[in-house]
Amino acid sequence: MRAHRPSGARGAGAAPYLFLAPAVVLFTLFTAVPIVYTAYLSLRRTKVSGLGLGRGARREVFAGLDNYSAALGDGELWAGWLRVLGYGAIVLTVMLGLALLFALLLDSAHVRLARFSRIALFLPYAVPGVVATLLWGFLYLPSVTPLRDLGVDVVLLGPGTVTFSMANIAIWGGTGFNMLVLYTALRAVPRTYYEAARIDGASERHIALRIKIPILMPAIILTTVFSVIATIQVFTEPTALRPLTNTISSTWSPLMKVYRDAFVNGDLYSAAATSIVIAAISLVLSFGFLRVVRDRAFQEG
Amino acid sequence: MAVTTRAVATRRVLKRPLRPYGVAPTAILLLGAVYCLLPVSWVLVAATKSKAELFSTSTFAPGTGLMANLADLAAYRGGVFWLWMLNTLVYAGGGALLSTAVSAVSGYTLAKYRFRGRNLIFNVLIGGILVPSVVLAIPQYVLFSSIGLAGSYWSVLLPQILHPYSIYLARVYAGAAIPDSLLEAGRIDGAGHWLLLRRVALPLMLPGMVTIFLFQFVAIWNNFLLPFIMLGDDHTFPLTVGLYTLLAAGANQPALYNLIITGALVSLIPLIALFLTMQRYWRTDLSSGAVKS
Which domain holds residue A223? Predict the structure, then answer.
């Protein structure tokens, strides 16, 4: 049989370009132009002449890298990075660890009520971050918490515990989705792999560690990279938890500081510089992670 | 036959260690399930508590105020809560519909056409996954302001149509679900590109499009940052921003807490219903083609 070449270069004409036009236009308007505009804004500042009153007293001028040096020298922002680092370390390890554990257990066929567990574990995905924060936030309040009924006395929104309480919300909301990604990848593996291993005398634990986890590696890497990007940009949980406690400042996370600079203080320029720094750090981290993983893979291979 | 002997041997081996770790795996999963259901079951109970009961009775003790709470919620600021529900439905439904259409057409084109710049366009579109939404939010707001659209429905709807991962999924799905021979046959019969897209490609891609629609629907439904930045008038708010403003107001008016909890419960019902009824479409891998029933 002759191999089909799907719609050879000849004859396709303008059709593929027309079909891709909506995506390309949307990409240009809502991704490319905003990126360039953010970079442009980050190099500008407002110059105030005289008392700053009247028309023309405030002008936008070129600022060079001033906004960046200000962002890098900003102690408030660094404190935010440190908080997010601690929070992110907890979220990433616990959330991805649980997601992997649950996916492996669900796939092992040695569990009862697997369908119920899978649906229940995925359910938090259907709960918006704001609502999840609101539900847990109330459960953290001393007058509502079930720990009160158990006679345990812990301040869940105090300075020492608020990071853990917030990490719990992200873990609760994110484990199910990551579990589904890993579980779907596991279901696509032909069962004969495991049967062959079992005949060779491999235990379930060996099969999980030696066959399933290596097969899952690309999916684990993918979920890790996406989780890192999402965690660096944490905004919803601390913002929605703020009304319930005064332990969280308006600059708790770097993204909250960007929001405050841009929309409360009206300084778009330094907010733009800070957001470029956040984007750069998340790109460096995700590429760095991919690099490390790839080097490891080559060493072992 | 080798295959049969192996199958028999397998069955014999499988029979022996049926549950090698006892009930531990089941127990761990059920523990996880309880953890995941805890806040949702609490809000179900808490919505029944009256103002006096909320902060005094035991956490999971049902109360007597459900009807009063629902009536208060419906009456709050002339029924603005229902408007938030409706807005969310418009943003998530309209956005996901447009997003699915754009993703399906783009995915089909990238999978089934060979043309100059194909890989470049694909890589650039997919590269969008790595762009943190924070670098987009501020300029999107400024750009929408400059054309007078900040605060409008469009400012929330339009930026959420393009979704790189959906295009990727659609491309994978189109590659698996549309046989080249069918397109070839259509072409020989004289069908144009538009007709092939509408009559051959899209119908075959429908199950994959349902999955893309669901994920995008949930993503927009759950989004907080973009509408929070774009919108100022509470008549255009989606539920997430509306509930947040209620919570922020509740810091000074604890009487609002019952409203917030009841609102949270009501806001969860549509999504959980969608979630439970569409179980078989919630998949993150579309490479296997058709949906198994």
Answer: 78-247
| Residues from chain A contacting residue B278 (CB–CB below 8 Å) | none
Q: Output the CA angle B92-B162-B266, nearest 5 degrees.
A: 15
Total CB pairs under 8 A between chain A and B: 302
Residues 191-210 of B with CB under 8 A from A: 193-194, 197
Is there a single domain that holds both residue A34 and residue A59?
yes
Q: What is the mean pLDDT of residues A63-76?
A: 88
Q: How many percent of chain A have pLDDT more than 90?
A: 50
Whether A171 and A98 share a structural domain: yes
Percent of chain B with pLDDT over 90: 62
User: Is the pLDDT at A10 greater than 50, yes or no?
Assistant: no
Say how far apart CA B134 and CA B119 lie, in whole Å.
27
* Chain B residues touching A100 at Cβ < 8 A: none
Q: Is residue A174 part of a domain?
A: yes
pLDDT tens digits, one per residue of A206-251: 888 888 999 898 889 888 988 988 898 899 999 999 999 989 999 9
Check if B180 contacts A (Cβ < 8 Å): yes
Distance CA B248, CA B85 (A): 19
pTM above 0.90, yes or no: no
Sign of CA dihedral A278, B239, A174, B31: positive
CATH topology of domain B74-281: MetI-like fold (1.10.3720)
State the nearest Cα–Cα gap between A151 and chain B, in angstroms: 12
Which of A39, A64, A89 delimits the end of a domain? A64
Interface of B with A in 62-91 (CB under 8 A): none
Inspect the interface and report whether the beta carbons of A128 and B239 lie closer than 8 Å: yes
Q: Residue A301: which pLDDT band, with cuts at 50, 70 and 90?
A: very low
Whether A53 and A114 map to the same domain: the answer is no
**A82 and A50 in a common domain:** no
Nearest to B127 by CA among A214, A146, A35, A84: A35
DSSP state of A127: S
